[in-house]
Design a protein that fits this description.
By secondary structure, the protein is α+β, with helices and mostly antiparallel strands. The chain has one domain. Helix content is 47%, strand content 18%. It has a two-stranded antiparallel sheet. A two-stranded antiparallel ribbon has the order 3-4. Helix 2 packs across helix 3 and helix 3 packs across helix 4.
């Protein structure tokens, strides 16, 4: 909560176990998005941006266009809590059965 010059940030750090791998995650309170970055490092930013773009380009080469369409549909629905099979199928203008069949054909799960 921000009060004049003083700002208290709520930061949550936790570890999730997901199968054989662990995921470290840091969550910031929503108000932190409006705060300025005081010690921005432009070199690091360019480096990380280039790395992310290269990683995405390689990932797209390995993925089918159907998988990318499904992922994009899920990304649009996630912030609203509506990333369910029926909603993704409707967004892709296909039936739930066809979505399930195509996911299974590509050895993907929802």
């Amino acid at each position: 909560m921000c009060c004049g010059e003083r700002c208290e940030l709520m930061v949550y750090r936790y570890r999730m176990d997901k199968g054989d791998s662990r995921i470290d995650r840091v969550d910031f309170a929503g108000l932190t998005w409006a705060l300025p970055v005081l010690n921005a490092d432009p070199y690091l930013h360019r480096l990380l941006l280039r790395f992310c773009e290269e990683t995405l380009a390689q990932r797209r080469l390995r993925c089918s266009s159907f998988r990318i369409r499904v992922e994009n549909g899920v990304v649009d629905l996630l912030p609203h809590g509506h990333a369910k099979l029926e909603n993704v199928a409707a967004k892709l203008h296909i039936s739930m059965k066809k979505l399930a069949r195509q996911l299974a054909a590509e050895r993907l799960a929802f």
